[in-house]
Task: inverse folding
């Protein structure tokens, strides 16, 4: 049986304009942050912001000038609230591939 929250999140993603439900940026919010850790490995860094934890993954040759970074904000229940992606130069191809599986 599919949990009602998963169904609601899937429907919400499908109803969001410009949001493809198959896109990881649409499908990961509402899931446990462990899903991302399982796919990408441990984050480059993490910090607390109030009750939330911000998890950051970087890809690139130098941390002060990364080619890509992904930021996931999760609540105290470890459920992803938001996703932020910033890419320059080579982009986030390796992250995209790992998160799209």
Result:
């Amino acid at each position: 049986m599919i949990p009602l929250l998963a169904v609601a999140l899937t429907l919400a993603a499908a109803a969001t304009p410009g949001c493809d439900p198959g896109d990881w940026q649409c499908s990961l919010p509402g899931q446990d942050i462990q899903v991302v850790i399982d796919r990408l490995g441990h984050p480059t860094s993490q910090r607390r912001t109030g009750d939330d934890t911000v998890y950051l993954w970087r890809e690139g040759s130098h941390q002060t000038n990364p080619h890509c970074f992904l930021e996931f904000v999760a609540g105290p229940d470890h459920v992803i609230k938001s996703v932020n992606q910033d890419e320059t130069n080579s982009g986030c191809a390796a992250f995209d591939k790992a998160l799209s599986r």
About this structure: The helical segments are 4-15, 24-27, 34-40, 93-99. DSSP finds four helices and four strands in the chain. The CA atoms of residues 91 and 98 lie 14 Å apart.
